[in-house]
Design brief:
Elements lengths: L6 E11 L38 H13 L3 E2 L2 E2 L2 E4 L9 E4 L6 E10 L2 E14 L3 E4 L8 E4 L6 E7 L6 H17 L12 E12 L5 E3 L3 E6 L2 H22 L9 E6 L4 E7 L9 E2 L6 E2 L2 H9 L5 H12 L3 H9 L2 H14 L2 H19 L10 H14 L3 H14 L3 H7 L8 H14 L1 H8 L6 H11 L6 H14 L1
Parallel strand pairs: 13-14
Antiparallel strand pairs: 1-10, 1-11, 2-6, 3-17, 4-5, 4-16, 6-7, 7-10, 8-9, 11-12, 11-13, 14-15
Length: about 500
Amino acid sequence: MPDLPYRIVIGLEVHVQLLTQTKLFCGCSTQFGLPPNSATCPVCTGMPGVLPVMNRHALELAVKAALALNCQIASFTKWDRKNYYYPDLPKNYQISQYDLPFSREGWLEIETSAGPKRIGIIRVHLEEDAGKMLHDEQGGGRESLVDLNRTGTPLLEIVSKPELASPEEAKAYLEELRLLLRELEISDCEMQEGSLRCDANINIHLPQGEGQLVATPIIEVKNLNSFRAVERAMKYEAQRQYEEFQRTGKKLGEVAKATAGWDDARGVTVIQRRKEEAADYRYFPEPDLVPVTVDPAWLERIRAGLGELPAAQRQRLQKQYALSAYDADVITGQGRAFVRYFEEVAGRCQDPKEACNWLSNEILQMLNERKIAIQAFPLAAEALAELIRETKATGLNKQRAREVLARMLETGSPAKQAIHDLGFKVVADEGQLVEIVRRAMAANPKAVADYKKGKTKAADAIKGAVMRETKGMAKTEVVQQLLLQELQKA
């Protein structure tokens, strides 16, 4: 970001729906897209006389996430009632955790323009979700419907410390968190389905006097339904607070904390109401659920099952395969199965950089077009490795190699057979290529003259003529080398 006359301070509260088959305290389905109010029961709708029963798998996934976020796991934790009234909260309270969450004091490392940065995690705790309001968007707002299917769904709330110093860092934090949770199969993190939701607390610090800072009131921005929305909302809100402070001079302590909504269409935040404090929710221990004591042996089994996490994986790929930080990030960002595929291709073709280029460009594009994961890609890692080996051995240029790949996918034939079937025979004789280069130079005297005047890009026209005459069957690097040699002689 350009230099600003203030310092941005951001803390994120992320709610993640856990990948369980049933809800946190009852046996109702958590499947997305069911008919409204069809996945409910007396427990999740708060009928009199019912008792909740904790979902053990939800707790296991929650602990798994907390361990991956380097949190301290409490040996003893309990449940609390968070009381508030809203149409989509049928019990008029939410079962959550208040003063004794199951984990706290962790961190998540992100990549920033200044290098790696650890963002502190205040706490990770479990709670049940509320329902969903469906508002009439075309009838003047006269009618709202309530769908209670989501009520009681297990949520993981991850609260960061206010250590994010820019909208870009906030976006990077969310991307790294989503990758981590998906890799560990804790959540699918689909924002469009509501399984990852984010609220952002933001204020700005301004210099005032010698070494003194003044802070604006903290604003909690809600309705952030994409990472891009988080980035845009933070940029807008920081500037809005700065302009507000310049106009009024009001600072932290003089104005109550507030909640704002993000209007993505207009690109603005809208102040909605005063921010509630803990006392407003009248927390008290949940009387219908016993506290949870964590068994150390069980905890260690979960820890042992984490495997290699994305941050460590990126570092290993850079060290083991000499990949750049960018390349390692691209490969890791596609998930563990993609990393395994890359490592098999790199090992079999003995060229990690070329394997990375093929995967991050051609293969990734095909996966996106077909909307499939690497596990469903019809080309085995060995087949792609063979294509890379044959391309290097024969000198096929990239365009012809892409045609070979398409043929392999179409017919299932190996690379060598596909090259033969397509009739590709590389022009590799240097004497023959020199003659072709000379003819191309004679046919393009202006390009030769421009090159001699210092316009190096003019050589591209001559190289293009050579590639056309050879029908793309000359190795680009060899043509480039021979062309430069001949141009020096001209």
